[in-house]
Amino acid sequence: MFQRPWYAQVYKEKKSSWTNAYRDMNSTSAVSISYSSPTYDLNGKFIGVVSSDLRLTELNKSLEKIKPFDGSILIVVNENNQIVAASDSSLTRGDKHGRLTDQHGFDIPYLKDSSLPVVKKVGQLIDHKLPARVSRISVNDSQYFVLVLPLMDNNHLLNWKSVIIVPEKIMLKELENFKYLGFLGLFGIFSLGLILILVVVSKVISPLRAILNKTDELTSYRWTLPEDKWVFPEIAQLEQSFWKLSRHLAKSFEALEKQINLDATTGLLTRAGLTSKEETFAQRNLLAVISVDNMNAITNSLGYEYGNEFIRAFIDKMQTTFPQGTLICRDAVDKFIAIFPGMHQHADVEWYQQLITNLFTDKYHPKESLPKKFVFTGYAGAVLSRVTKSTLTEAIMNAGIALEYARKSTTCHAMLFTESMHAQEVYNLQLHENLSRGIYNQEFHLVLQPIVDLSTGQCTEGECLIRWHSKEMGIVPPDRFIALAEETGLILPLGNWIIEHACLELAALITRGASDDFKLHINISARQLLSADFAWFLLDAIKSNGLKNQNICIEITETVLLQEIERTRKTLQYLRRHGITVAIDDFGSGFSSLSYLNILPFDAVKIDRTFTAGVLTDQKCESIISSIVTLTNGFSVPLIAEGIEDDATRLKLIDLGCMKAQGYYFKKPAPFSDFVCSNGNIIL
């Protein structure tokens, strides 16, 4: 539609205009011109184009009927002296034939290009400003009388001309019959014909202009049918169609506005409806965005009907919990905006936070059926700032940021937005952009931290760690960008880069003298482990660098182990069958369960540094390490202690039965190229 002639020009210029002639899309022969006008809604927003068509093939027939004499030619031309319509329809045929599906490229002929010599001659004369009076011309020894008259509409948008060509021999024949009286009669007929042409054209254009002048009323109920009937039934039918269309569009716009502004399920205002009713939140400065996190699970498990009942119950609970006058609107399926009445201070916020917390900590009995109980889980973010139409969007955005902080919190259901939250979000966005560029620009490098056998002091293992020196942000610690990479999905390309370069660095280290059995530990995220091609990618990287599968140990945390246990178990079993070993990293730091140790395969356990740091001073830490040593001995796997900072800690771990350790006491993480090897052992 955007390419159709009757639409494209008005859509671009936003003003009324006549189109050039074009071939109708639904016909192989019909040629039309259109008068099109832009249409706007009550807010002045452009919503479409109203167009009226004048079919030129029908105008040809009218001109044939009203031409002054048999043998004369009556032509209507546009401002470019192209033949729009003619009493001889063959004059209107252009060079292009056939159906034009895109309605472009239709050429109507010029007078001067006509195959009829007299018409061609007239076209050449008109190009040189033929005067608006009867002229006499000669073509191929034949004489013709020519009259050119202007043909315009009241808006001066239509600048056409009518051309009448009468052969002299026809004139002479009439003179012979009527002599001087006949000549005067002929002149009268000639003039009457001209007037008739103007009247007919006016009768066609005037009603169209009247209809077009009413197009502003198309989307309202103000379009009325005229009391006087139109001369042409087609015009009357067109007016009737526009009247019906007007009523249909008005109803549609009313329904659409209601659908946009009101939630169909709950009857609450939507965000759009809230924005359009600024008076409802005047003199308020406390806004909260509330998310019902178990809404989707309820709907997916029990169906939409139950889900609607569930969310109505939550709305009822909000209305009974919050102060009277609280404005509640539905922003999404499981998200609401609440604007509390009055102007508040920071001291008031804690009370409102408790109200929101009550939504998710108390079971709810619907009024109509007490036996049924609903349990709601979710979080909220609030913002303390004057709410106006201009600040509403920003307030909702900031409350949404606070909502995400509340969701990550383990201590509260509702948090108040602070500028530091916004600063952190901006930092995360910058970090994400630079992280993506950093992967592409090769800004990362790997370091190695040795793992030492406590009984022999030798090093035949090590953990591969990643470091990032950003061109924009400088040195960025791993604990800042690793978590963000996991959240955004960039951990997949970053993880693949680590695997490729770790295998490359290990191959070079073995070439420099490290043991052929040197085992390199690589940290793997949950997304990596559960990706479809992870195992294939890892095995291919090992093979491509001439390594053995036994050279690689993947380290995974308890959190990774507990995600999709069955898929995780199958992947780990597959890798272990191919010789790759598995170590459980940061054991005891998460919400672990001993049950998974009996389900998931593993070859080593790494104890979290928080326990080793307190082993000399905290009896509980010593007891935990002792228990884990006993546990790993029972599974016949080594325990690797992280974070060894001094010799006393090393000796204590040996005394407790720990077999391996790593930490700054032995060696800080350093580039692979910094390590010197001798007799298959890394010299520390």
Write the layout of secondary structure elements.
Layout: H1 5-13, E1 17-18, E2 22-23, E3 31-40, E4 46-55, H2 56-66, E5 73-77, E6 83-86, H3 117-127, E7 135-139, E8 142-152, E9 159-167, H4 168-212, H5 233-261, H6 271-276, E10 286-292, H7 295-302, H8 304-321, E11 327-332, E12 335-340, H9 346-361, E13 378-384, H10 392-408, E14 414-416, H11 419-440, E15 444-453, E16 459-470, E17 474-476, H12 478-488, H13 491-511, E18 519-523, H14 526-530, H15 534-544, E19 552-557, H16 558-561, H17 565-577, E20 581-587, E21 604-607, H18 609-613, H19 619-635, E22 639-641, H20 647-656, E23 660-661, E24 670-671, E25 676-678, E26 681-683
Parallel strand pairs: 13-14, 16-18, 18-19, 19-20, 20-21, 21-22, 22-23
Antiparallel strand pairs: 1-3, 2-3, 3-4, 5-6, 5-9, 7-8, 8-9, 10-12, 10-13, 11-12, 15-16, 15-23, 15-24, 16-17, 25-26
